[in-house]
TrEMBL record:
Top-level taxonomy: Bacteria, Bacillati, Bacillota, Bacilli, Bacillales
Pfam families: DUF4179, DUF5643
Keyword Phosphoprotein: no
Stated name of the protein: DUF4179 domain-containing protein
Domain DUF5643: 231-339
Keywords assigned by UniProt, alphabetized: Membrane, Transmembrane, Transmembrane helix
Domain DUF4179: 47-140
Source organism of the structure: Planococcus lenghuensis
Length: 442
């Protein structure tokens, strides 16, 4: 592999000597195109379905957690009292915020059903706040539902579709009964919602082999959501010279939102916060959400990060702690690929990321010795060509093979190279010890 890359580099060097590579011009067009596409790409990135390995990793995590974490008798009995919710003892026991929601009777019973083509969809219960809604539902059918597929979930409120920041759904069949399927739709809004009405409609497409059944199920939530608890923080800090300001911390029943603004003069682009948590006076920790929406906004600028919720707790003291950030140099925040010569023109300076293959709209990267680093994430986002055009993607995936981790970017249209592919995560970190006490709202 190294010999092939060296040969390609030599070939490219000769071409550059003969003809100036218009990389500077391409850079300008690429940057303009990426700036134009920021708002669109953010929505697309949140909606993008994760690859099979992400799903498998989540399943492994889920199995490990359900066999190692015990739930309180209050939690188990609360779930058992809600029709159709027994299975969710297993699904939500690893999220302290969701456990607390159940124990504090914040799940609202619905019990509304609709039947089409002999398939019945029942909305068992919902969890609602201003930041999102969880809809727990059950499908029953005389036919087997072991290979059922769920598509196109949507939520309307008062006749208007709620704007999603992310949608999670489609748990695997639990195997208990082939004719019963239970699932939860985790719907997080792109902006906070003030409800003028508690009338909702769930839209869903159920696939049974070649048969597709569309449901539109109206339902009413009995009680309005609890209001959030907001801390106005406005405190600045820095880690290894990279400055940021924690503006607000908002505690909702479903999640905690931490609004952070990064300094535009930072030499590095902050891709993720790996270590952020709320800690009370007893040392109890509420950390990042294990399997769900973790952030929204523009990386390295204005970002909202999400933690597990402690809404129903009453701590005497609460401290926000930040310790580890994923970061790359600003000039290397997008990988640049010469697709014709299959050469990386620009990538993070640590040299870990390698280009494996470019063919038929597929670009594959890899890293060595990443299989045991504890990270499983999409690493790439928006793709922009040399003219500044935003390139549509058919899929982004990842998988492991031995000690190598592979990422694949699959393009869905023609382009003019070189291509710039934005990094959305990368395994280089900077570390510090930031502690910000939260003052109780007046």
């Amino acid at each position: 592999m190294a010999e092939r890359e060296e040969a390609k580099l030599n070939e490219l060097r000769k071409r550059i000597e003969a003809t100036e590579l218009p990389l500077n011009k391409a850079d300008g067009a690429i940057l303009q195109g990426m700036a134009r596409a920021k708002r669109e790409q953010e929505q697309k990135r949140r909606k993008r379905k994760r690859g099979l390995l992400m799903f498998a990793a989540a399943a492994v995590l889920f199995l490990a957690l359900v066999t190692s974490i015990r739930v309180s008798p209050a939690f188990a009995s609360s779930v058992a009292s809600i029709p159709g919710m027994e299975r969710f003892v297993e699904m939500i026991r690893y999220d302290k915020g969701l456990r607390s929601i159940v124990e504090n009777d914040y799940v609202q019973n619905i019990g509304v059903s609709q039947t089409k083509e002999k398939v019945t969809l029942t909305i068992d219960g919902v969890i609602l706040d201003e930041s999102g809604i969880n809809v727990h539902y059950t499908l029953t059918s005389p036919k087997s539902l072991e290979h059922v597929t769920i598509r196109r979930p949507s939520i309307e409120n008062g006749g208007q579709e709620l704007p999603p920041a992310s949608i999670g759904y489609g748990f695997p069949h639990n195997g208990e009964s082939p004719t019963v399927y239970t699932d939860v739709i985790e719907y997080r809004f792109s902006e906070l919602v003030q409800y003028d009405s508690l009338d909702f409609t769930l839209g869903l497409e159920v696939g049974l082999g070649k048969e597709k059944i569309g449901f539109l199920v109206p339902f009413e939530v009995p009680e309005p959501p609890n209001p959030p608890i907001r801390f106005d923080v406005n405190q600045s800090a820095s880690i290894e010279g990279q400055a940021f300001t924690v503006e607000t911390v908002t505690i909702h029943p479903l999640q905690v939102a931490v609004d952070i603004k990064f300094d535009s003069d930072n030499s590095m682009k902050i891709l993720n916060i790996e270590d952020m948590r709320l800690v009370d006076e007893t040392g109890e920790i509420w950390s990042s959400i294990a399997n769900g929406l973790t952030s929204t906004g523009e990386q390295g600028a204005d970002v909202t990060y999400y933690l597990q919720s402690n809404y129903f707790e009453t701590p005497e003291e609460l401290v926000l702690k930040i310790g580890k950030l994923q970061a790359v140099d600003q000039e290397n925040a997008a990988v640049v690929v010469d697709t014709e010569s299959e050469v990386l023109l620009r990538s993070p300076s640590d040299g870990q990321l390698k280009l494996d293959e470019v063919s038929n709209g597929l670009i594959r990267f890899y890293m060595e010795d990443q299989a045991d680093d504890g990270h499983t994430y999409d690493m790439f986002g928006q793709v922009t060509d040399a003219t500044g055009k935003q390139i549509n993607l058919s899929a982004i995936g990842m998988y492991q093979d031995g000690n190598r981790e592979y990422w694949e970017v699959m393009l869905d249209e023609d382009y003019t190279g070189p291509l710039a592919i934005e990094l959305t995560a990368y395994p280089t970190v900077i570390e510090g010890d930031v502690e910000i006490p939260l003052k109780k709202p007046q």
